[in-house]
């Protein structure tokens, strides 16, 4: 993969429980209407399932589980579960449900993508992806200073297309004078691990720390990621930091929370995250379909723990809709405590 992606294949529906907030992102330009979907033949469905099953067996993070998942969709095909599904999108949805039914892996999915559309830019036309990321301000939805001099940064996705660094630095500089910072990840379904690392490195020290350990069974490789030694924006390793999470927070959004929690660097407020803890690869499987397959296992380098299926637990559990108020109370209390502890001039 050309990008370090942690992006769950979750439906991108808004969270009804969250309060409405005005976004600063711009609407992306409308693309050309897609051509009418073809009618899927039995042979096409068979071909897609065969290709998907082989890809799972070759690349999925765990060989035994890969065989179980591949066997499950093959069995569903033989049982006639897909016989009436001649519309590509309906077929993709049905296969996605069956893929996830075995072990609850939210990264697994089958999508009809005849124009090369992929999750968070993977497999897409590069120019279109860059334009969309720029139009959406690389996933940075809101930056403001709240009452009590508390900085607030909402990141709805880590859209790590070229140019994201400048957008992140601009946002962080706007909050450089605040006495505490809240980062809202409640609507963040994932994206670029590089961008996630870039943002959270601004809140860690200059000495790099190990963040995640990545094992790719298909490639036979392992690597350990670290935080960045140098960052272009304001480095604030001591500012009180709060992360807002929800059941929708997934993948790179969870990685962000996972690392800062493990480092003892942030207080998490809200709900347990989704539990989508693998890196995802996009694999073409023929007839205009692409599969999302978990290709790496991601763990904490020190403990070996992962967030796959279990999610990341908040320090201050509360309903996602109430998380901002709870974090603000905690942040303002921390500011008061720091102020009281300062020696008199």
Your description of this structure?
- The chain has 2 domains: 42-120, no CATH class; 124-278 and 296-341, Alpha-Beta Complex (2-enoyl-CoA Hydratase, Chain A, domain 1).
- The chain has 8 helices and 13 strands.
- The protein has helices spanning 42-59, 63-78, 88-101, 126-135, 164-174, 193-201, 252-262, 323-341; strands spanning 5-7, 109-112, 140-146, 150-155, 180-184, 190-192, 210-216, 221-226, 241-245, 267-270, 278-286, 289-299, 316-317.
- Strands 3-4-5-9-10-13 form a 6-stranded mixed beta sheet, with helices on both faces. Strands 2, 7, 8, 11 and 12 form a 5-stranded antiparallel beta sheet that branches.
- β3 and β4 (150-155) form a beta hairpin.
- The model is unreliable at 8-31 and 118-123 (pLDDT under 50).
Uncertain stretches: 8-31, 118-123
Number of helices: 8
Helix content: 25-40%
Work out the count of structural domains: 2
Overall number of strands: 13
Notable characteristics:
6-stranded mixed sheet, 8 helices, 2-enoyl-CoA Hydratase, Chain A, domain 1, alpha/beta
Question: Topology of this structure?
Answer:
Blueprint: E1 5-7, H1 42-59, H2 63-78, H3 88-101, E2 109-112, H4 126-135, E3 140-146, E4 150-155, H5 164-174, E5 180-184, E6 190-192, H6 193-201, E7 210-216, E8 221-226, E9 241-245, H7 252-262, E10 267-270, E11 278-286, E12 289-299, E13 316-317, H8 323-341
Parallel strand pairs: 4-5, 5-9, 9-10, 10-13
Antiparallel strand pairs: 1-6, 2-12, 3-4, 7-8, 7-12, 11-12
